[in-house]
Design goal:
By secondary structure, this protein is of the alpha+beta class. About 40% of the residues lie in helices and about 25% in strands. Strands 2, 3, 4, 5 and 6 form a five-stranded antiparallel sheet that branches. The protein has a four-stranded antiparallel sheet with strand order 7-8-9-10, with no helix packed on it. Strands 11-12-13-14 form a four-stranded antiparallel sheet, covered by helices on one side.
Length: about 450
């Protein structure tokens, strides 16, 4: 008997010491599960809030979904481009800022050429000088490609539609390849079978009305020089191009027929000069033969922009009037130091104000995020509280009724609650309307008194 009592006492002591490990009866499982889910959802909202706070200064880490969202394709034609400017720290007294001016592109006539830099052989591509149309609505530029396996080049001619709501200078400065039309208007042969072969397209000039563009295609070999230059006219109205190869045939025919000179045995070429100043339907070209140390002038020729007719004009280059219609942007020096110094002073003030505003904006942003987070938690707590009340009511109804009687009673109680809620809303609306009417009457009295 004594041993039995000792055993009971020992068990009681163990219960007192380790009672927290013994499973105890608990309340409604459904309510506890709902509360657990509610707490999990609140924790998720907290994590979302903390993530938003942290992502104000992105760390670079992101989920796959976030990466896919950021890497989704964007409409490059709608992307904004700022005027390029050399960054100037506020503590710098003077950093030369280049100044630009708009000049005629084809000046003197026939002078535009593509300058290929050493970067072409490293980057395999180079964008050359572009020409702007007379109405400043589009810019055309050549893009040259280098193929190292054959040391050859090819070329495409692209169009960039310039932004309208800017000055002419800013239109050119902000012209960016992002906004170019995807398909080129002209392209050279892309085959690179022959070693050291180069093919380039150089814009020469626009017509007076800007509807046509004169281009020269140069084909040659870096070891042997230029083989042939072909004038090409692109018609923007009909979106077609015309190779003016007929003018070369006319020049060969004239010198063989009237001068007894076979140009096929000589090294010669043509230089497109531009559009005729009196009639832009005609293109002016100069033919030159290389038969010795001094090139021989083969005459100034005109050819229609479609290449249907060709004629000799003169052997006197000064007697030809060629129009100059396109534009380009060139550096015209640097801004004077006084301007940069004033800009530096202004920049210090701006940076100071920006720092203040940034701090203010960050504080407001944090406050707004916190407010939204707390509002969300209140909504979740209110919904949870309402769902728990609804659950308790169902349980009470089910314990006092049977069958469909409980369902009908639940619907009746919910309808009564909804009607009561609507009454409260109506009263609130009436109260707000009365306040508005009172304020309106007060404002009218104040205005009539004036």
């Amino acid at each position: 008997m004594i041993y039995a009592l000792l055993g009971i006492a020992a068990a009681f002591c163990a219960f007192i010491q380790w009672g927290d490990e013994i499973p105890l009866p608990h309340g409604d499982v459904n309510k506890k599960e709902a509360k657990y889910i509610h707490n999990v959802q609140k924790q998720e909202e907290k994590q979302k809030y903390e993530k938003k706070v942290m992502n104000r200064n992105p760390s670079g880490y992101m989920t796959v979904e976030e990466y896919e969202l950021l890497s989704a394709p964007k409409d490059r034609m709608t992307m904004e481009v700022e005027v390029p400017k050399i960054p100037t720290p506020a503590d710098m007294v003077y950093v030369p800022q280049p100044s630009y001016q708009i000049v005629k592109y084809n000046n003197p006539p026939g002078s535009p050429e593509i300058t290929i830099g050493s970067s072409l052989y490293k980057r395999r591509q180079q964008n050359a000088q572009g020409i702007v149309s007379p109405d400043f609505k589009k810019l055309v530029y050549p893009s040259i490609y280098y193929y190292p396996n054959s040391a050859s080049t090819a070329c495409d001619l692209f169009v960039i539609n310039l932004e309208e709501a800017k000055s002419n200078k800013d239109k050119i400065l902000t012209a960016n390849v992002l906004h170019r039309v995807s398909e080129p208007i002209l392209s050279t042969e892309k085959s690179n079978d022959n070693l050291y072969t180069f093919r380039t397209l150089t814009p020469i000039d626009f017509s007076t009305d800007g509807t046509k563009l004169l281009v020269k295609e140069k084909v040659g070999n870096t070891k042997d020089g230029i083989w042939k230059t072909t004038p090409i006219v692109y018609d923007f109205v009909n979106n077609v191009s015309y190779n003016l190869i007929e003018v070369r045939g006319a020049i060969v025919y004239y010198w063989e027929r009237y001068k007894n000179l076979d140009l096929d045995d000589k090294r010669w070429d043509v230089y497109p000069l531009g559009f005729d100043a009196e009639n832009s339907d005609w293109v002016v070209v100069n033919a030159v033969a290389y038969t010795g140390n001094t090139p021989i002038n083969l005459g100034i020729w005109k050819v229609t922009y479609t290449g249907e007719q060709s004629r000799l004009v003169t052997f006197d280059n000064s007697a030809v009037n060629v129009s100059m219609n396109g534009y380009k942007l060139v550096k015209a020096g640097a801004e004077p130091p006084s301007v940069s110094e004033k800009e530096a002073e202004h920049l210090k003030k701006v940076e100071k104000e920006q720092a203040k505003q940034k701090k203010k904006d960050e504080k407001a942003e944090l406050k707004e995020l916190e407010k939204a987070y707390k509002t969300k938690l209140k909504e979740m707590d209110a919904e949870f509280k309402e769902s728990q009340k609804d659950y308790d009511m169902r349980q009470r109804i089910n314990s006092s009724t049977t069958g469909n009687e409980g369902v009908e009673k639940y619907k009746e109680i919910k309808e009564q609650q909804e009607a009561k809620r609507q009454q409260l809303l109506e009263k609130q609306k009436e109260k707000e309307l009365k306040l508005l009417e009172k304020q309106r009457a007060k404002d009218e009295n104040a205005n009539s008194g004036q």
